[in-house]
Amino acid sequence: MSVATHIVLLGAPGAGKGTQAARLVERLGIPQISTGDMLRAAVAAGTEVGQRAKAVMDAGQLVSDEIVVAIAEERLAQDDARKGFILDGFPRTTGQAEALDGMLERLGKSLDCCLAITVVDEEVIARLLKRAEIEGRADDNEETIRERMKVYREQTAPLLDYYRAKGLVREVDGMGELDAVAERIREALGG
Ligand code: AMP
């Protein structure tokens, strides 16, 4: 089996997507594409998109498919994504997943794998509260965390079935040490 290089990372907030994606960047030499990071940068820069997204993000809700699909498409078309990419936090709705299929088709690419990182709820909340102390992200307080988990369950978790139907899902246990999780991911992606 050849190594997967066109990857969607799926997992609840705090499942470790960003951390594990950063490791994959180093190991596979393909970019991490995080719509959350791009939106935070837009908020910090005060762009029109940032101004529209800020209140929604602070409330733990999802930014509109229209905005997110546009920024993902622009990013995926860039040169460094030619050989592959790790999508981190996109898609988050069925509409976004369908839009992704369309844009990949236009770019002459297809997904190799949807890597689903699973963790239990209590662990996620504990991790996010810890991250709140360290990074001070505006959306890492307990109320918003619970809202983001609800949004994940209702709008994003159904994507597991979407990608299962395409035979793309590989599940990895995200509990335990970072290195152990990274090793499970390496195996799941085919080395
Ligand atoms: P993240 O860093 O991936 O946890 O994203 C932080 C916040 O950005 C989310 O809670 C959403 O408000 C927004 N966001 C990031 N990616 C998406 C997406 N694919 N669709 C909608 N909203 C998103």
Task: Provide the fold topology.
Layout: E1 6-10, H1 17-28, E2 32-34, H2 35-45, H3 48-58, H4 65-76, E3 85-88, H5 94-107, E4 113-118, H6 121-135, H7 142-156, H8 159-164, E5 169-173, H9 178-188
Parallel strand pairs: 1-3, 1-4, 2-3, 4-5
How would you describe the overall organization of this protein?
With 191 residues, the chain is α/β, with parallel strands linked by helices. It has a single domain (6-188), classed as P-loop containing nucleotide triphosphate hydrolases (Rossmann fold), CATH 3.40.50. 56% of the residues lie in helices and 12% in strands. The protein is built from nine helices and five strands. It has helices at residues 17-28, 35-45, 48-58, 65-76, 94-107, 121-135, 142-156, 159-164, 178-188, and strands spanning 6-10, 32-34, 85-88, 113-118, 169-173. The chain has a five-stranded parallel beta sheet with strand order 2-3-1-4-5, sandwiched between helices. It starts with 5 loop residues before the first strand and ends with a helix. Adenosine monophosphate binds next to helix 2 and helix 3.
